[in-house]
Write a structure and sequence with these properties.
mainly alpha, Farnesyl Diphosphate Synthase, two-stranded antiparallel ribbon, globular, 70% helix
Length: 301
Amino acid sequence: MATAHQIPALDVPMKRVAAEIDRLLDQLIPLPDDSSRRLYEAMRYAAMSGGKRMRPLLVIASGGLFGVPVEQALRAGAAVECLHVQSLIHDDLPCMDDDDLRRGRPTLHCAYDEATAVLAGDALLALAFEILAAPETHPSPAVRAELTLDLARAAGAAGMAGGQMLDLCASEAALDLDGVTRLQRLKTGALIGWCVEAGAVMGGASAEERTHLRGYAQCLGLAFQIADDLLDAGGDEAVVGKRLGKDEAAGKRSFVTLLGVERARRQADLLAEQAVEHLHPFGDRAAILAAVARFAVARDH
């Protein structure tokens, strides 16, 4: 398997997108001079703490296939990043995964308190949809409505939240490979799928083009999750920036516990290459999307 350092095609765009997302979030989450300031500080602590910004990059790279202006794609990317961060805040709570470290820093409820963390997550969730509904994101009300509807579905009970519920029950459910795959398609894959299709929606892509991107996203989502499972099983906590070995300690089945390390690694690599094959109709224009697929399984954090 390649290492992340062998995928230079991503270095510049990933850093550029991360900087632009931080700039935009800085504007979207200003600090007020009143008693609500603590909430905004907590939102900024969680949303502007680094991270790969892979989801915004997917939106921008997908939109680039269809001539979507970068400024518009960035706003959609900021929206999905707000929602992603909200999910991390809530996942880390004592009532969920009970984590005290995220991206090498104390999780939000540890840095502030549980009530503030819940409210910051709620506020970031609301901000995501506020961003999408604003005319600056796209001139067409129909496009904005489709983006909003699709993101609500990807985040809700039929998507990310439903996947988290399955995950909470996983230690008791003794899931088989199909069960783990379904869990991760909801918890991780639904939001990745939205990111890839968002650029197509904003750019007026054809049904055939969206089908190719949907296949790419499905393979990418599973490859990304298998890589996460591999990191949880054998990564370096200092590099990953969070507590590892949680699945095994909780008695949860994962791709690694079901397949074994080597078979899981081969499956992740295969899925990454299948994702790239779905991009063939777009040629070299999809180079960044292809690089993301390879990075997803080569990363060390």
